[in-house]
Amino acid sequence: MTDKPHKIIPLADIRYASRVPAIPAQLLAPSGLLSDTLGRPLRDLRISVTDRCNFRCNYCMPSEVFTKDYAFLPQSSLLSFEEITRLARIFVAHGVEKIRLTGGEPLLRKHLEVLIEMLAKLQTPGGKPLDITLTTNASLLAKKAQSLKDAGLQRVTVSLDGLDDAVFRRMNDVDFPVADVLKGIEVAQKVGLAPLKINMVVKRGTNDAEIVPMARHFRHSGAVLRFIEYMDVGASNGWRMDEVLPSAQVIERLNAEFPLTAIDPNYTGETAERWRYADGAGEIGVISSVTQAFCGDCNRARLSTEGKLFLCLFASQGHDLRALLRGNYADEQIAAAVGPIWQARTDRYSALRAALPADTNPADGAARRVEMSYIGG
Ligand code: SAM
Ligand code: SF4
Ligand code: SF4
Question: Average pLDDT in the 9-29 region?
């Protein structure tokens, strides 16, 4: 026996509050027509396939919090591909048409292509294929783009916060070069993962000088660049309102350089407000989760890496579907348990935050919110 000091590792499984959903006595079959207390349907499921990441973006997984001793989920806690596909099938029966794989960094999950193949076989009740996409930091995209495409992935969203190498290395905080992300984007476009979207989180004073260079770079590329307001997700990033650059100012800066025209949303519930370059160089978007809440149309549910269902990005409590999956219940029973959870949904965090004084951080004093790396973006 050694007398090494014991390191106490918190049990990741009990990190966030959750409850095990009740199985209703009467099993109602999914109708695909669920709606919540605000009349919002369920259409979009975001699945986090890992809580780990090889980046430490300061607004998401700050390195002071996510240290080498951080208790990431053990392998046994993760939903298996079979479990994810089983739940996806149940959600599709309830009306989900779009699945986004996310994380953490989803491309770190081994054999992700196998999961994509399994999900690509699902169909909506009307017989349509699902819209399957993935959000990635692109660090492994050049290597994996072809196999992802072959597995049935249709498109990808790449996160990229600037073109200046020093700014980008500082933001990812692991000294990752921008050239490798650009290579990933190039390969993804070459293999036909399209239309490719690029998400840039804008932090005032950190990377807002990159707005115009990013636009200039991706004009005429076919990729849709979207500027995201820095959000107060999780409990780690030390969010402050004065670091948010409102999308209206992003548009103002771009419009001064490249005149823009507003265009209509593609579909109800689209998070991005769309704009087109007047000279025909393509399209951009802004996602204004802080200054222009879009809760009214929010049709998104989130499944954490360990199978907890969250009804809002800012939730502090999940619904433990893994307990049902591993509790020997039939699909009909799990489906009947999921329906009432969505029907009881009241979440509209961003809309409520918008009503608070500008310098308030609504997280202060509130229940600890889930981290974006755990719940998925
Ligand atoms: N690792 C992958 C990536 O970065 O694309 C997927 C997961 S990441 C949590 C998903 C998205 O959330 C990324 O586009 C990221 O920029 C965004 N995100 C993370 N923290 C954010 C924050 N505080 N405010 C706004 N967007 C954030
Ligand atoms: Fe990782 Fe994505 Fe979060 Fe950055 S935003 S730390 S790449 S999960
Ligand atoms: Fe949806 Fe919650 Fe975001 Fe509102 S705050 S748009 S309800 S995820």
Answer: 75
